[in-house]
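Lab notebook, bench 4. We co-purified these components, and the gel suggests they stay together. Before we commit to crystallization screens, I want a quick structural picture of the whole thing.
Request: model the full complex, all chains together.
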Amino acid sequence: MNEISAGDTAWVLVATALVMMMTPALAFFYGGMVRRKNVLSTLNLSFIIIALVSLQWVLLGYTLAFGPSLGGLIGSLRFGGFAGVGSEPNADYAATIPHLAFAAYQMMFAVITPALITGSFVERVRFKAFLLFALLWATLVYDPVAHWVWGVGGVLRQLGVLDFAGGAVVHITAGFSALAFALVIRSRRGYGAAPMEPHNIPYSVLGAGLLWMGWFGFNGGSALGANGLAVTALVNTNTAAAAAGVAWMLLSWRDNKPSVLGIVTGAVVGLVAITPAAGFVTPLAALVIGAVAAPISYYAIKFRQRRGLDESLDVWACHGMGGAWGALATGLFAARSVNPAGADGLFYGHPVQFLIQLVATVIVIAFAFTLTYGIATALNRTIGLSVSDTEEQVGLDISEHGERAYA
Amino acid sequence: MTKKIEAIIREEKLNDVKDALHRIGIVGMNVSECRGHGRQGGVTLAGRTGSYQVDLLPRVQVNIVLSDHNVEKTIETICRAAQTGNIGDGLIFVYPVEDVIRIRTGQRGRDALIYPNDIDERRVREQAAAAGSSPAGK
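Here is the predicted assembly.
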């Protein structure tokens, strides 16, 4: 029998609340970047996910991700409906906190991941199709990948992949699914012809600030205890965000002026990139990971724009590419001296770790992209992914929700 | 005759224009925000990455209804206060006004445009002062 630690449990509960806050924060980060006729729709795409995926997680998601492994591919149904998930710890995952605390903490990760994807199809997605997509995606993409990487017996965990807080599980899956979805759904009408200006950049600054704060729970909480590892993760998180914010400022300054939307985007990209590495690297490595993440995402956005793809809010460039860089960087900078439960990376004389990270990254990209492309295509051919041209012109706030944001 | 002046000016010049108009006794006006462009076409803004072009720029439209003998002085005042010398300073349109009705009193036409200490009362005072002092001069 394991002893429950009050300190560990308190920290994980606080971290759960912090990560929960990230989804409404993301809603505002995205909501500021769309036109005013679509701000409620955009906020709601994230908000409804909190409710929808919370239900999915209690009923089915948790057990698919963290139930006893079936062949390393998926969890069994033993924890369906949170059956048997209570105040006793589950030593497989966190020996000093109630099993239910772990399940609740993980629920917030399952929530924010599909919400991240919404940036790819804002301002034109049909709400009904989106609801179906979110449920299918959470069940068919997120839960299996979470099981592979984090579940005891999961295939990628067996391989030895390091993903501290979800660089692959959260950001690579979301980013490359966003790319796949954008390839299926049509562009916004007039995309490329007229600039689609962000209608409220202060919302985006507010959202990014709250994301930064929430990320202390996302990465710091992934230590699953109130301990030195949580502190390491928190400091690395802050350092990477800072480095990426400054780097993005310099990039946009060189191209025009130091854009505020650019600076806050940079900070978010730094947070994305440090996510898989947060509990495995030194603060100096975190600085490098953040600083390099900024140009990667910056030029990924430019590349995406040149290709004329309306992946509207650059989920792929920020989360997909930032997450992929973070996953690979973990294979470079990880050090057992930081976290004995981790591994040494390439720079610490263990090049195999880099290969493991590379293989896992490629597998997760291929899986998330392919499945999302399939789900989106199926929905597009049956109920249709996008609203009509008239509905889009009027704006989704009115046409999908019958409300206006600003009276 | 009453006229309407519609001046499209820079947002940042609104306070200067308002103050200058108050100084000459134009006390009634209404202001609306508008967007548009003339020959200058637009500006470049900083985006997440690099820049993008915006063609409709924010401007302020000042509407004033006044007696026609006050039009020239008002136009001069607006021009002086709103000018930067750069492209995009704006335009002034002048229209005839059929009638003016003050809802509170039912006054019509020129009567509806009179306020205490406005440009017309000042003119009367200045003329009276000039008339009062001229006999002594002669």
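The beta strands of chain A are 69-70, 74-75. Worth comparing against the SEC data before the next meeting. The first strand of chain A starts at residue 69 and ends at 70.
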